[in-house]
Specification:
alpha+beta, 64% helix, 4-stranded antiparallel β-sheet, 10% strand, 487 residues, elongated
């Protein structure tokens, strides 16, 4: 047989021989939570995670802002680049399964030990560097580990997007609440300024004491301070939303919030909670923890394989001659192949320590997987419990505002007619202002609870978003590369 035909045969034989694997069977932990949430829910045909964010957030302005966020948010862009890095790491690890073939050329001059004369040697050919034949599955275990880490990174990006969209929605609703609170503060300040004028007139006329005037002045300045505080909070929320979006917000969107209330926002769609078992399939962070557990399990296979002989192969074929002009003659052909075996006998317990590290890492990953499930269960339970109580709280506070508003009108009328003291009017003003603010804050909490429930159920990601975010990240990288190119 021609020696050159041995190389493919040897390679094929080596590849067929690599069928052993020491990766242990991965048994997923049992569901470490109850099979039902504290508030009974039923299985649903359309899980929340299957509802695109474009259908859940019905406000066109919010949809526009979320679209801008997916294109420009830097944290999300980093998550996409982490995926590309993990994919490249997987490709690197997978390439170790195959031999590296390269071209070699050499020119050498030396003295022969037989003849004592100096001579030249020239060679050129193809060669395989030391290639580990994966009899025991070490390289394949590392490949499986890299694949699981890559998949975990993908799930991490989805989880990052879900959290980001929820943060944008909550901040947008917070801005609308800021505008409503500002309007309440402006109206209250105007009312108190009118009251202080009336108190000053009555004081000058001797119909009221200086105490009434000073109390009116105190409430007026308190309302002015509250207005300044809420103005600052509105500006801070705009800055926070700008950072989330990744670019300045269009002014027309901010202007559209002025003079509006939370009740003017388009309603959010209801989401079905489903059962706790749905979270295992729908929450990206749980799937991420699962893939990290798979990666840790695969590392055990690689650690176990280190206890067995390392078999590697070196081969080369080409032309060699003492005369450069005759290098490619038929008589100059050469071929060599050299398998080698290395069995560790003593390494101060390093292999055993590597195995112990891998096994402990698997236990840690399993514990983290269970903790992630428990955290998801708690987040959904909190959202469901809060939703029920927030509805009752909002109804009660709205009824309180209606009652206090009527009380304030009666107190104002009685004070103007000299029937009741100014203290009754001031008390009604304080109570009304506090009650109106509480209604806005509770309504905001109820809306944000809907957003958080959608988020913790895995909603906020859709397959088409991956391509849009990836294109945005790639276009940004391409633009930067173009700027760095020399003219």
């Amino acid at each position: 047989m021609n020696n050159y035909k041995l190389i493919p045969a040897v390679l094929v034989t080596a590849l067929l021989a690599t069928g052993c694997s020491f990766i242990p069977t991965l048994d997923k932990p049992e569901l470490p939570v109850s099979g039902q949430y504290p508030i009974a829910t039923a299985e649903t045909a359309t899980p929340a995670a299957d509802i695109p964010w474009q259908e859940f957030y019905t406000d066109p302005r919010l949809q526009q802002i979320i679209g801008m966020t997916l294109e420009n948010n830097r944290d999300l862009r980093m998550a996409v680049l982490n995926i590309e890095q993990a994919r490249a790491q997987y490709d690197i690890q997978r390439s170790q399964l195959y031999p590296e073939v390269g071209v070699s050329a050499m020119g050498q001059r030396g003295r022969s030990q037989l003849t004592g004369q100096y001579g030249n040697t020239y060679s050129v050919g193809l060669g395989i560097a030391s290639w580990e034949i994966d009899f025991w599955g070490r390289v394949r275990s590392l490949k499986e580990q890299a694949l699981a880490q890559y998949l975990a990174t993908e799930e991490g990006r989805k989880a990052a997007q879900i959290s980001l969209i929820a943060a944008v929605a909550n901040t947008w609703m917070g801005l609308q609440a800021d505008e409503e609170l500002l309007e309440i503060s402006r109206r209250t300040l105007q009312t108190r300024e009118e009251s202080i004028k009336l108190a000053k007139l009555r004081f000058d006329a001797g119909a009221a004491s200086e105490l009434d005037f000073r109390q009116a002045q105190t409430l007026t300045e308190a309302a002015r301070a509250t207005l300044a505080q809420q103005t600052r909070q509105r500006d801070l929320d705009i800055n926070a939303l700008t950072l989330l979006v990744g670019q300045p917000l269009p002014q027309d969107l901010l202007v559209s919030l002025k003079g509006k209330k939370l009740t003017d926002l388009p309603a959010l769609n209801n989401v079905p909670p489903g059962l706790p078992s749905d979270l295992l399939l729908r929450r990206p962070d749980i799937r991420q923890a699962e893939q990290q557990m798979v990666a840790a399990n695969a590392s055990i296979g690689a650690a176990r394989a280190l206890f067995f002989p390392n078999i590697s192969l070196t081969a080369s074929a080409g032309f060699a001659n003492s005369e450069l002009s005759n290098l490619f003659e038929s008589g100059s052909k050469y071929f060599s192949i050299g398998p080698s075996l290395y069995l560790p006998i003593f390494n101060a317990g390093r292999n055993q320590a590597n195995l112990e590290v891998a096994e402990v890492s698997k236990k840690m990953a399993a514990a983290q997987y269970e903790k992630t499930i428990q955290t998801a269960f708690r987040e959904v339970s909190d959202a469901l419990v809060s939703r029920r109580s927030l509805v009752d709280q909002l109804n009660a506070q709205q009824a309180q505002v209606d009652a206090v508003s009527a009380q304030f009108k009666l107190s104002d009328l009685r004070y103007r007619n000299g029937v009741s003291s100014y203290l009754d009017l001031l008390d009604a003003q304080r109570t009304l202002f506090t009650a109106e603010q509480a209604v806005v804050q509770t309504r905001l909490a109820l809306l944000q609870n809907q957003v958080n429930l959608y988020k913790v159920l895995g909603g906020g990601w859709s397959p088409q978003d991956d391509q849009a975010v990836a294109e945005a990240a790639n276009s940004e990288s391409a633009a930067k590369d173009a700027k760095t190119q020399p003219n």
